[in-house]
Amino acid sequence: MIKKLAGLTLLSLAAMPYSTQAAINSPIAFVTQVPIPQDFCSMNATFCNHQASMDAAGRGGDLWIRYPDGTLKNLTLAAGFGQTGLQGDQAIQVRDPAVHWNGKKMIFSMTVGAPSHYQVKRFNWQLYEITGLGKNETPVITKVANQPATYNNVSPTYGTDGRIIFVSDRPRGGLSQLYPQLDEYEEAASNTGLWSLAPSTGSLIMLTHAPSGDFNPFVDSFGRVIFTRWDHLQQDQQAAGDRNKTDSYGTFNYSSEAANAKILKSRAEVFPEPLGFDTLSLAGTNLSGHSFNHFFPWQVHEDGTELETVNHIGRHELGGSYVNPAFTDDPVLTYLTNDSNPNKISNFFQIKQAPTDPNTYIGINAPEFGTHASGQIVRLNNVAPTHNADQMTIDYVTDKSTSSLSLDDATPPAENSGHYRDPVILSDGTLLAAHTFETRQDRNEGTTSPDYANSYPKSRYSFRLRTLKKQANGVWTADQPLTKGIYKDISYYSPDSLTHYSSALWELQPVEVKARPKPAKLLPVLSAPEAQVLQEEGVDETGLRQYLKSKNMALIVMRNVTQRDHSDKQQPFNLAVAGSATQAVTDKGKIYEIAHFQAFQADQIRGLTGCCSTTPLPGRRVLAQELHSITANPAPALGDPKGSVKIADDGSVAMLLPTRRALTWQLTDTQGNFVVRERNWLSLQPGEIRSCPACHGINSGDQLGHATPVNKPEALRQLLQYLKGNGSL
Fold this sequence. Notes:
disordered N terminus; seven-stranded mixed sheet; 2 domains; mainly beta; Neuraminidase; 7% helix
């Protein structure tokens, strides 16, 4: 049935004026969603939020627009989508609206359909475009052509070149046996990264391969694709539980990624160090145990090249979770971070750029669980490409207490104004966000019933769109709502019980519907030291890139891996190249010789059966394996680590690597023992030549206060000579 409000039906809400006190000068589009108290793998969770099942996404939401005079229009209803009452074939749920550069159309994700009785069906999020956004126009919704039809496609945004950038759970290479990709934490289903689609031709490119997921991309005014990445490069905690007999997950390794791969009687892992609670694996070693878990800001070009954290910012500057020193027998190693940014955060979700100050991003510092990714609004300053990470600072916009949870039996501090998500700064400087006054963890305070009976769930959270105002102490708090509340009376099978809602819907994901300048598309530029080596060796850059593309390879070059950023003291930083005079050594701590650069590729070979079965569950988690899919590098000498190349006498490295697959690496000593490990996954594109001054990029100075190295990398010269010698170039 259609919910009546003061004599008006939902249909008449399409043109209903609201006299709220919030004065907004631009049209604001947003979505409504049925409140779902459950916050694990549901549509607003921090991770595993891409699934369209009934229990994860519900049904009954819509895409709305609010005009400057307060009038609301239900865009999906006006375009003929959605239904009231019992949700069936025409039911919808919507998410992730993004406005085109011209301000005249939007792209968003929508799932269509719901079972009209108890029935388990698979539903997918798909991309749709809407035109006719004007107050007196009739909206038209069209499904985006040529998108992956059987996978979940969410968080779309417009590129600068007519392509659409979005998040998908399509498996890498389209290999169905790898679906779904399982994350590195709970082995829950994850998205696989960012994708780029040209709807007119069907050209589909995997821009990033993310073993645990990428989220909420947008193109900033500098032309960079900005997004949140879940950095979780650690060993499998489920396998550690099985190994130590504290749990029973049934983890195992496959022999390969092939559909007919054998199940091995092994759960071995080779990278990185074991987890801290994996006492069996740590016994007798000098390892502290390693865990890593951050949702931090990343950037990439629209073609998938130059992937890195924004201006190389990371745990050392932002804070994040506690990371132990790598080794227990080197007292100069420390978990401490630098003090250039006094305001630390744990995560950075739902990032947006401020149109009034493009040098800043705004986003949410929130817990991983319990709040639907809502928490504290924070601002990241000095994000322009001309700044380095030491110059980037965090401002707390809402009070620090809004970043965490209040205990059920505790009184929250007076300054805790609730939880926030989806912040956006409008072109006139107005700060807008979805807000709930609730400070506790969400939970169902209604009723649920198994056995196909009726359920009446009730969330503690009531997200409403509100403007924010700045208090005398400089802290911002929620102010006026944009609507008087949007209500629906609906029911749907989810799927075991008939779920009923008759309440205000959540208002989320506001976007300003306004034209904005389109930045120039960023193109790859080879740095001067590397370009000079190519010139001296008579190698044409265009020809080299074409060779790499023809082999689906990329080339990575590092100038001096003994130099490390001054903030990185968690791993060894007194480094000397074995057999040469090249070193970067302070007057404290042990000196470590390094000899090899060893690469690892993310292979989806970890499976599990669950606690009570011998049948493998669908999907696979990645494990880091020694590089094996590229054979074009000089072969390692007998006794050298698999998948490695030698570090040149000047400290430089050059190596050919696979593309569109997550990669990581480490520096080893002469015996192949690791010394320094990369702590993130990266991926490369065919034809990419990625030059890095050091193994850990240098912000304002290295461990000795020296600047970024600018030497012509001899390792690149040696590799080019090798490729020319065997006829590859």
